[in-house]
Amino acid sequence: MTAVFADTFYWIALADFFDTSHSRALAVTASYASLYVVTTDEVLTEYLNYFGDRPEVVRQKAAESVHRILSSRAFRVVSQSRSSFLAGLELYAARLDKGYSLTDCISMATMRREGLTEVLTEDRHFEQEGFRALFRDPGT
Questions:
Q1: Does residue 138 form part of some domain?
Q2: Is the CB of residue 11 less than 8 Å from the CB of residue 38?
Q3: DSSP tag of 137
Q4: What is the phi/psi pair of residue 134, to 5°?
Q5: Could you tell me the residue range of the domain that residue 15 belongs to?
Q6: What pLDDT is attached to residue 43?
Q7: Residue 131 contacts by C-beta under 8 Å, 6 or more apart in sequence?
Q8: What is the CATH number of the domain that holds 41?
Q9: pTM of the predicted model, to two decimals?
């Protein structure tokens, strides 16, 4: 089974009906339905942080969606660990000129370790590291 990495961008676009990428996230989800989706605890933390200042009902839905992700066989969530933190920190320190977030660096290190090349995101930083960002239009 082919796997793809899910970045915070994807989870937010999928969950937030008002996100400009919501309909595209639904379409991408349908077209990649047979893929195994990998993400990390750190990505899910960033996802929940995004909804942190929203109304209680929205925060509840975000928490419920993370519980579904964690319990679903369709997704694999790589646990946060000291080694994942250090691998991300190493990339972060090596790319000070790029503006990468630590979460992105942990994601990229995880993708390399897992042998993943495609990511559900539009974040160009992943392309700068040689990954294929599935939400980016070629040439942008």
A1: no
A2: no
A3: P
A4: -70, -15
A5: 3-133
A6: 98
A7: 5, 108, 111, 116, 117, 118, 119
A8: 3.40.50.1010
A9: 0.92
pLDDT at 89: 98
Q: Which residues of the chain have pLDDT under 50?
A: none
Instruction: Return the closest-CA partner of residue 75 out of 11, 133, 9, 123.
Output: 11
Which residue type does 45 have? T
H or E stretch covering 38: strand 36-40
Largest Cα span, the chain: 40
Task: Enter the tokens of residue 18.
Answer: 């008002």
| Helical segments of the chain, H only | 8-15, 22-31, 41-50, 56-71, 82-94, 102-114, 124-128
Question: What is residue 74's predicted lDDT score, i.e. its pLDDT?
Answer: 87
SS3 98: coil
CA dist., res. 31 & res. 81, Å (int): 32
Q: What is the rounded CA–CA span in Å between residue 37 and residue 8?
A: 13
Domain count, the chain: 1
CB atoms within 10 A of CB 21: 17
